Amino acid sequence: MGEDYADFVNEQYVPVVRFLMRMGASLADAEDSAQHMALQAWRKVRGRQWDQIANPKAWARTVALNHYRGRCRDRREYPTDMIADGPAPGPGHDELVGQAHDLVAVLRLLDPRCRAVIAFDLDDVAGADIAAALDVSPQQVRDLRAKARREMKKHLAEREGIRRD
Amino acid sequence: MTRAHPYAVSDGQVNDDALDAFLAAGDAALSSFVRSHTDPDRALAGFGTTAGPPRTTPAAASTDEVELSADDLRLLAQIATGVTADIAARRLRLSARTLRRRLRVICARLGVNTPIEAVVWAARRQLI
Asked: Which residues pair with B10 in a beta bridge?
């Protein structure tokens, strides 16, 4: 059981940090919330409730997301620059940071529920699990996804147009 | 913004493939950023402890030879219940500062960075 837990955390920690950064979290906040998720998972294991979690991948993201949102509410402030600093790990770093920034910037234009659907989609979480996580119907998930994709396409087209002018 | 983008548009329209390419490229970049910047020491924050000095080498990599005392295991078992360091300290009748110091010592002996890794270490060996 402990081994399953360790494997789960090893496997999910970085993806959950990335998931939260898609939602606009800073690296530090994303790590804190991912760590909270790891602790909650351990509690489930200790309480012998781990097997009751139908989809651990969706569960991990939901727990981390709720923790992150709670923190944002408490602080009443949002990070302005999610990828602020840190050592540059080598050639190509600027390019990578630029691409990551572009993604987060586009996601930030969406309303939070649309953004969440896309963030879950990027991790291949099933529609039913997204609906449960966001407390909306599966149809609403589809609507939010369609709206999000429409808005992102529009934004990218506009940006491309501006660059050409 | 002078970067070339892989999601070039035609007729001022961005199609699904172009959007997916943009998302995939951004997400891959975000992944590599997270992987190269994730600092395990930050994980200590969840326990309200501060990180010890960074390890330069995994000195205690052969952790199978390390033995923890019954007190150490009791401490890890408390942390494993998910309570905060303060509550765990109260239950063990220790000061929070002592508990954190002992946690750091345990982590150092096991050659791990965070209490959760120490908990996992003990759980893997079915010690807690």
From this structure: B13
Chosen for mutation from B3, B33, B76 (greatest number of chain A CBs closer than 10 Å) is: B33
CB B124 within 8 A of CB A2: yes
In which element (H, E) is residue A3 found? Answer: helix A2-22
| Cα A106-A112-A115 angle, rounded to 5 deg | 45
d(CA A146, CA B38): 33
Residue B72 backbone phi and psi in degrees, to 5? -60, -45
pLDDT, averaged in runs of 10, over chain A (165 residues): 76 92 90 90 87 91 94 65 50 74 92 96 94 95 97 89 65
How close is the nearest chain B Cα to the Cα of A137, in Å?
A: 24
- Interface ipTM: 0.83
Asked whether the beta carbons of residue A9 and residue B116 sit closer than 8 angstroms, the reply is yes
The first and second tokens of residue A121, run together, are: 């989609």
Question: What's the CA gap between A21 and A15, in Å, rounded?
Answer: 10
Nearest Cα to Cα of residue B110 among B120, B100, B101: B120
Distance CA A152, CA A146 (A): 10
Give the separation between CA A142 and CA A136, rounded to whole angstroms.
10
Token representation of residue B15: 């199609």
Contact flag A31-B43 (C-beta cutoff 8 Å): yes
Contact B23 A103 (CB under 8 A): yes
The count of other CB atoms within 10 Å of the CB of residue B21 is 16
What's the pLDDT tens digit per position in B40-96? Answer: 444 433 433 333 333 333 444 444 567 888 888 888 888 887 777 778 888 888 887
